[in-house]
Design brief:
The chain is α/β, with parallel strands linked by helices. It is built from 13 helices and 13 strands. It has one domain: TIM Barrel. It starts with a helix and ends with a helix. Monomer.
Length: 340
């Protein structure tokens, strides 16, 4: 059924149809019995799927990655689709429009997306305010970044502002220094600036009555030497875990013709082409940290087998994004059924 619907949806631009579909889902959710209908079709209830990771209890291990619900507009609706947790963002201190349109592209032959969104969002304060009114008790993570106009030398201040704005509204934080769509952002993954940033956030966190788990989201394009640095820094700063991985700047092995890829231009590639690399990064971190770092896996997860591959590599939880677009609203139910 969804394959037929997908053919219709894919006739429209990815970004416009995303907003249209989610607004429609919000309307359905608000109708009498609408929520019950969504839960009956897509919901997941099984205590065997529950996980406790970095001090939080997840009803199931399948979450929604950052980028889909940037501004926390659809938390209750996504909870009804069975997600065990939702990561909002990336949010920045100030609202920003992101990069010019078009900035989101489908590669159906590769089951992939290319995006150069550029952290388009309404700002941390707006997301925090919206989260105050959510009705579901689903776990929510806050993915935080810096504004495009903020130079790297002042990035620490932007992350601090996001941390304070979202602290009361989210259950955990993810520090995003790995998006390829904000100029020079990935330079913050280098050892010294990253260590300084994470130390500072953990200092702020320690001053809170109840510190929140802070995780780091990394790129799939890091060398083993860089991954060794990441492991060292995460252990030194006592971070709660790692989200692996973000999108890749690589275009290797794509089925889509080279001219189309060239016409699309810059952006992060997600979906099936990232699957193997993400798994390799997860396995490397898990092995070289001797399993001491909890990992949320994201990258090329479409089926229960894909999720199990990530869990076998050392992940504690998984997230979907591109798989959600290509497989439809029952993806969580199908993955959880397979894992069960």
């Amino acid at each position: 059924m969804y394959n037929l619907i997908k053919k219709i949806l894919f006739r429209y631009s990815p970004e416009s149809i995303h907003h249209s579909v989610m607004r429609g889902m919000k309307i359905i959710h608000s109708l009498p019995l609408g929520k019950n209908l969504l839960q009956a079709c897509c919901g997941v209830k099984n205590q065997q799927l529950e996980r406790e990771v970095f001090g939080l209890r997840f009803c199931n291990p399948v979450g929604l990655a950052a980028g889909f619900d940037k501004d926390a507009k659809y938390i209750d609706e996504l909870a009804s689709l069975g997600f065990g947790f939702v990561e909002i963002g990336t949010v920045t201190p100030l609202p920003q429009p992101g990069n010019d349109l078009p900035r989101l592209f489908r590669l159906p032959a590769d089951k992939a997306l290319i995006n150069r969104m550029g952290f388009n969002n309404e700002g941390a304060a707006a997301a925090a305010k919206r989260l105050q009114f959510r009705k579901s008790n689903i776990i929510v993570g806050g993915n935080i970044g810096k504004n495009k106009v903020t130079p790297n030398e002042e990035a620490l201040s932007d992350y601090e502002k996001c941390f304070h704005a979202l602290y009361e509204a989210v259950d955990y934080f993810v520090v995003n220094v790995s998006s390829p769509n904000t100029p020079n952002l990935r330079a913050l993954q280098e050892k010294e600036p990253l260590k300084q940033l994470l130390h500072h956030l953990q200092l702020l966190n320690a001053q809170k009555l109840k510190p929140k788990p802070i995780l780091l989201k990394i790129a799939p394009d890091l060398t083993n030497e860089q991954l060794d640095d990441i492991i060292e820094i995460v252990q030194e700063t006592k971070l709660a875990g790692i989200v692996a991985t973000n999108t890749t700047i690589s275009r290797e092995g794509l089925v889509t013709d080279a001219q189309t890829i060239q016409e699309i231009g810059a952006g992060g590639l997600s979906g099936l082409p990232v699957k193997q690399k993400a798994t390799e990064v997860i396995r490397y971190i898990h092995t070289h940290s001797k399993g001491s770092i909890p990992i949320i896996a994201v990258g090329g997860i479409f089926t229960a087998e894909d999720a199990q591959e990530k869990l076998d590599a050392g992940a504690a939880l998984v997230q979907v994004y591109t798989g959600f677009i290509y497989e439809g609203p029952t993806i969580v139910k199908k993955i959880c059924k397979g894992l069960r």
